Amino acid sequence: MTRVKMKIIGVDCPTCVYSINQRLAKVSGFKKLEADPSTGEAVIEYDENEAVLSNIYEAIRKAGYDIEKEVVELRIYSNERELESLLRKINKVPGAINSEGLSITNNVRILLNPLEISKEQLFS
User: Fold this and answer.
1) Which residues belong to any copy of the HMA domain (predicted)?
2) CATH classification number, 2-67, choose in 3.40.50.720, 3.40.50.150, 3.40.50.300, 3.30.70.100
3) Which of 9, 45, 77, 94 could be cross-linked to 66 through a Cys-Cys bond (beta carbons 3.0 to 4.6 Å apart)?
């Protein structure tokens, strides 16, 4: 079981939390949402064998909200296979919401949850 802290942007009432919870309930592996409507701070529990953080993030977005995140953009020169391997490794790091990239453009974009990891921690 994984517990992740997030700050959900746009939450200001119990109905907001209810709406997010309804959307998260559709994610396989989601277990529990605890959120403070006055601050937007939340703790989400999910089974990491069934869900990944990007699934949680997308469900929150589909509910009409967003999360506080840090975007890291890199240029990485590698072939397609090396890039795919790197992205899989990044996506397994606790606090990494999602990573994507194209070997043709050499661009990689990583979304981080700043309540869980900083870009300095990612690269250490």
Assistant:
1) 2-68
2) 3.30.70.100
3) 9
pTM score of the predicted model: 0.88
Q: Considering only CA atoms, which of 84, 14, 90, 97 is closest in space to residue 55?
A: 97
pLDDT tens digits, 61-77: 999 999 999 999 999 88
What DSSP line would sit under the chain, residue for residue? Answer: -EEEEEEEET--SHHHHHHHHHHHTTSTTEEEEEE-TTT-EEEEEE-TTT--HHHHHHHHHHTT-EE--EEEEEE----HHHHHHHHHHHHTSTTEEEEEEETTTTEEEEEE-TTT--HHHHT-
